[in-house]
Amino acid sequence: MAESTVRLPRPLRAPRGNRRFWLAAGATLAGGAALVLVALNLLLGAPEPLAAWLWVALAPLAIAGGCVLVPALEQAGPAVLRSSVLAASIGVLVVAVYVIVVIGLGQPVAPADHGLLGLSMIAAAVVAVLVLPLRSSLADFSRRITAKAKGQPADIFGRLQARMTRAVPMDELLLSLAEQLREGLGCESVEIYTGASGELSLAVAVPDVSRPALSLSVDERSVIGRTRMGAAKWAAVWLPDLVTGEQTLRIAPLTHQGEVLGLIVVRRAPESAFTEEEERLLAELARQFGLALHHVHLDSALQRSLVELEERNSELRASRLRIVASGNETRRTIERNLHDGAQQHLVALAVKIGLVEQIYSSGDVDAATKMLGELRGDVQAAVQEVRELAHGIYPPLLRDKGLPEALRAAATRSPLEVGVVAEVSRHTPDIEAAVYFCCVEALQNAGKYAGPGAEVTVKVTEQDGRLLFDVRDTGTGFDAADETIARGHGFTNMLDRLGALGGTLTVTSRLGDGTSVVGSIPLPDTEDAELESGR
Question: pTM value?
C-alpha cells in the first residue's frame, strides 16, 4: 500500500512586522499605565497596594499578545501603535506636570484635597485629548483672523482687478493671483492651469509643486465649461487627477463663452470649509481671468497672423521678382527664336526671291519655276516656325477652344502615354493660362524623370468654387524631402503662376511610387469673371 503523508496546517501567524507593532503597542500602554499609577500613588496615596496594581498595568501587554494570534487583526497593528503612543503620552504628560508642580513646590497635598486634585487631573487629561481635533479648527480660525486683518476678499479682488487694468504680463498676473488667494483666503495651496483645446498644463503653483498636464475630452470640456464652482465630489467625477488626499477642494474654471481656458484650484485642510463669500470671489475672479486669457489667445493669434502675413508678403515680393525675371527671360527667348528661326527663314526667302528674279530675267523659265516650288516649301516652313513660336507664348487652341482641347493637344506632344479628363467650362484667360502651363510643366517633368513606360493622367475639375488640376504619373518618383527637387525651376514657376491668382500647389512623391502634382485656383464670381474676360 502506498504511503500517504498528511500535512497538518500551520498555526496562523500575523506577519512579523505587524506582530512587532502589536507588541510595541501593548508595551507602550503598559509602561504608560505603570508610570501613571506610580505618579497617582505619590500624589494621592492611591491606589493601594501599588505592587498589585502594577501587575494589573501589564494587562495591555497580555491583550496585545493575544491579538497577535488573530489573523483578522493583522493590518490594525500600525494604527493601534499610533493610538497607544498618543494615549500613553497624554497620560504620562498630565501626571508628570502635576508631580513636578506639586512636589516641586514642596506643598504636600492634604488628604482632604485628594478628591479635588484627582478631578483636576481628569480635567487636564480631557483638555489634552480634545485639543488635538480642535487644533486644525483653531489654526484655520487664526488664519481667517489674519486674513481679515490683511484685507477682505473684496479687497483682494480690487487689488487684482487694478493690476489687470495695467499692462502686466499674464504670467506675472497669474502668480500674483495665486499668492494673494493663498494669503487672503488662508489656503494651503493654489494652482492655476491654462491651455486651449482641452490640453491644460500647470502654469502657476503656490507653493511650487509638479503636476501632470490635463487632457479633457469633449464631454468633459462641455460640463466644465458650464460649471461655476466645483467641489471635491464633483472633481472626483470630472477631474479626478486633481483630487489628492482629504483636502477641502474648490475648482473655479476659467472659461469664455463655454470654452475652457484654464482652472483655479484652491486647497485647504480637511476641517476647513469655504464660505459663500469666498466661493463668490473665486467665481468672479475666474470669470475675469477667463476673459483675460481669451484676450491673450486673441493677441497670440493676431501675432501669428501678422507673422504669417509678413512671410506671405516676403514670398509675394520674391514671386513678383521671379515673374519679372521670367518675363524678361521669355522676351529674350522670343527675340532669340525670332532671330535664329523665323528671321533666318525670311532672309533666305528674300535671297531666293532675288535669285528667281534674276533667273526669270535671263529667260530660263524652267529654272525659275523650279525655284518658285522650293520657295513654296520655305514659306511653309517659315509659317510653321512662327506658329510654333506663337504657340509657346499663348496657344491659339487654348484661346479658341479652352482647356480640354488645349490639354489634349499638349498630351499628344508628350513622349509618355497621357490620358486627359477635363470637362470644365470656360474661365478667364489668366486662370486658363495658369492651369494650362502648370499642367504642361508637370507633363514635361514627367517626360524627363518618370522613366520609360510610365503613364500619366491629367484631370481638371471644378469643386467648391475652385478650379483643380491633378497631374499624376506612375513613374519612379523622387524624395519629396529633397529641397533641390521640390524647389526646382519647374515647381517654382508653377508656384509663382498659382500664387499670383491666390492658388496653391501640392507635390506628393515617393521613390518608386510615382508623382502627383495637385493645384487649386479660387474662381471669381460669375459677374466678375464676365467683366474681366470681356464676354
Answer: 0.43
